[in-house]
Structure to design on (511 residues):
């Protein structure tokens, strides 16, 4: 079964979706979208370094995204211009990554695959890495779930309960770096944040609790992955962007449903 | 030792000294009110006691295993996070569902467990925050200007509620407030803060202290007396005003 590239692609998309759903909820709740971008864009630099030093791309990306995530996480709260700083980090990392790629890449190597993903080229080994990473992200978030929610809700409330919000922030930082390293093969560095934010945002109107939102987001992400894969197969479009487009359609539908429900109420 | 002991606590925020050498301790069952003008460091003080703020100098010692029931001024609840009242009361520790239901009824917001936190009125919100703090069976209840968003009847009702639950639970209460005249006579001790401890003592001592008069003027003296008067007899009709605005 795994010999079929479409099956492998589908499983890769599902793996990303189940981890991105819950993690994406925290990205939305904590307004970490730019933080996600900064981490994801750093992945390109990670790819270049891996190529230059001939190490596995996954390891290189994981290393650089972790460093980036910790750097921007460390900056948080020290300045009032967080938005600007993260914007600088996100786009600076992308630009430097692109330049580094041009300097280090051997002939014929395709940058596009890293920017937009190459889910159709996912091999069995990639699949194992993706699912291991996704499950690790889920385990990490699940382990700290109650503490993460409390710290996200209110830092002082967390302190008073004997928690350390700073540590919970680090848990999310590590999870994000891990997810980026996993997702680069599936949707590419430019669209990872989209897979975090869009399913979560689409899930919000249908959710009454954080848990419901996380699960619904995972389902919307999974449906988008499979739907996007199918659509890209039918219309011969690039798969990564098509998956994100499918998530976007889900978000629009969710908005339409919300508006329609609002009209009924009034 | 006391439940919490702070000695020589100084706090700097953004390069500005907010608190200077504050000594403080609170005993089991004691009611202490912290008063002070806006920007005097009252909130910073209470946040330093729960460990939310790094100290520039001094130390804060909490009794081992101390359970703090904290009621913040407000919650920075992001609209993107769906959260029912019942779910909120289960953070970060999962509680028995019946216990949660009983507690909500006890603080006067029974039946709101399924309501979204964002859909609560100011008074309901404060009561939900209080019920969460009480569910942890705290040794000390810490309230940071809990009645800021309430109108006067709501405020009076909320303070009555706090006095009631304190008698039941027997916990200490540390309350930051600007409603001087309502709070003070219920307190064992009042701490007047303006960057440092201006004066400290029983409500009567503090309200007569020149440092206190200098900060708040003597106008509050009359209001203080008015409250004591109210305290001596019961107004059954005022119960009706406890309904949230």
């Amino acid at each position: 079964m795994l010999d079929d590239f479409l099956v492998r692609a589908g499983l890769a998309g599902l793996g990303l979706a189940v981890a991105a759903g819950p993690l994406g909820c925290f990205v939305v709740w904590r307004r970490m979208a730019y933080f996600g971008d900064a981490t994801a864009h750093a992945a390109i630099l990670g790819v270049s370094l891996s190529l230059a030093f001939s190490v596995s791309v996954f390891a290189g990306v994981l290393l650089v995204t972790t460093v980036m995530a910790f750097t921007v996480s460390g900056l948080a709260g020290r300045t009032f211009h967080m938005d600007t700083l993260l914007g600088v980090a996100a786009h600076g990392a992308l630009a430097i990554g692109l330049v580094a790629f041009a300097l280090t890449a051997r002939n014929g190597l395709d940058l596009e695959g890293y920017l937009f993903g190459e889910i159709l080229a996912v091999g069995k080994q990639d699949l194992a890495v993706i699912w291991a990473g996704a499950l690790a992200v889920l385990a990490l978030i699940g382990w700290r779930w109650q503490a993460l929610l409390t710290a996200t809700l209110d830092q002082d409330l967390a302190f008073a309960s004997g928690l350390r919000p700073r540590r919970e922030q680090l848990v999310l930082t590590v999870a994000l770096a891990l997810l980026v390293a996993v997702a680069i093969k599936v949707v590419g560095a430019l669209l990872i944040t989209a897979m975090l934010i869009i399913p979560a945002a689409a899930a919000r109107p249908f959710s009454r609790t954080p848990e419901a939102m996380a699960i619904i987001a995972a389902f919307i992400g999974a449906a988008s992955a499979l739907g996007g894969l199918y659509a890209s197969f039918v219309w011969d479009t690039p798969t990564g962007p098509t998956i994100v487009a499918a998530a976007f359609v889900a978000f629009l539908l969710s908005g339409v449903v919300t508006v329609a429900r609002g009209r009924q109420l009034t | 030792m006391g439940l919490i002991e702070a000695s020589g606590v100084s706090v700097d925020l953004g390069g500005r000294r907010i608190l200077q050498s504050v000594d403080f301790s609170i005993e089991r069952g004691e009611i202490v009110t912290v008063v002070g003008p806006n920007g005097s460091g009252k909130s910073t003080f209470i946040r330093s006691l729960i460990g939310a703020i790094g100290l520039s100098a001094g130390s804060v010692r909490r009794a081992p295993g101390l359970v703090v029931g904290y009621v913040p001024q407000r919650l920075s609840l992001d609209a993107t996070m769906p959260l029912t009242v019942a779910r909120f009361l289960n953070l970060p520790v999962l509680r028995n569902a019946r216990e949660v239901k009983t507690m909500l009824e006890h603080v006067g917001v029974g039946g709101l467990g399924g309501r979204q936190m964002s859909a609560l009125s100011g008074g309901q919100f404060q009561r939900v925050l209080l019920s969460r703090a009480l569910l942890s069976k705290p040794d000390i209840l810490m309230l940071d200007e809990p009645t800021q968003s309430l109108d006067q009847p709501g405020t009076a009702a909320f303070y009555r509620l706090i006095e009631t639950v304190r008698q039941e639970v027997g916990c200490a209460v540390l309350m930051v407030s600007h409603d001087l005249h309502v709070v003070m006579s219920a307190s064992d001790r009042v701490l007047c803060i303006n960057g440092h401890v201006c004066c400290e003592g029983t409500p009567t001592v503090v309200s007569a202290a020149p440092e206190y008069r200098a900060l708040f003027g003597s106008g509050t003296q009359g209001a203080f007396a008015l409250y004591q008067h109210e305290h001596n007899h019961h107004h059954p009709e005022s119960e009706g005003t406890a309904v949230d605005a």
